[in-house]
Amino acid sequence: MNVVLLGPPGAGKGTQATKISREFGLVHLSSGDILRAERKAKTALGRQAQDYMDRGALVPDDLILSMMMDHIARPDATNGFLLDGFPRTLAQAEGLDARLAESGRPLDVVVNMEVDDADVTRRLTGRWSCPTDGRIYQEMYSPPKAAGVCDDCGSRLTRRQDDEPEVVTQRLSTYHQQTKPLVDYYSHRGLLKRVDASGTVEDVGAAMVRACRG
What we know:
- The chain is of the alpha/beta class.
- It has a domain at about 1-115 and about 180-214: Rossmann fold.
- About 50% of the residues lie in helices and about 15% in strands.
- It is built from 9 helices and 7 strands.
- The protein has helices at about 15-25, 30-40, 45-55, 60-70, 90-105, 115-125, 165-180, 180-190, 200-214, and strands at about 1-5, 25-30, 80-85, 110-115, 125-130, 135-140, 190-195.
- A 5-stranded parallel beta sheet has the order 2-3-1-4-7, sandwiched between helices. Strands 5-6 form a two-stranded antiparallel sheet.
- The longest helix is centred in the C-terminal third of the chain and has 15 residues, at about 165-180.
């Protein structure tokens, strides 16, 4: 099974992608995680992506498409993959379809996680991470035991640059302008399933599994 997750930043795609990947035995390919790893390692890709990511803008289509196809072609994706955070533009979606058609591995389902802008803003601006072990906290839903401190190692928590309020506003604007049209694109192709992602993690997860099963 080959799956794409759509939805605004902060919809919970990463959390649900992990659940779906386990449920169906898929490799989880998160464009954001891959890009951040490249940036941390200061690779050529990471240096190119740095400025775009810090401003909440999209990485150029040709750059991200080549990177994702490289991971799709790896042996661990043979039994299926789940794309989280990609594609984000019509050009990326069309490029992905063309590359997948060449390899005989078309998409099976596209799940759109629907959340309103106000909820997204609350989720993202309240998200903090541990710079030491990478653990993520959320002020409203999963706060640390002591404010501003990692439960596991005691490090001071930090907020990602792309979760700063002004960057969140830009990310949402970018989503509405460039990514939301993908809902129509995949709907016309008969691949789209819609899930209300405003509920609990458990309820949303159950709905996601049902959507993937068709």
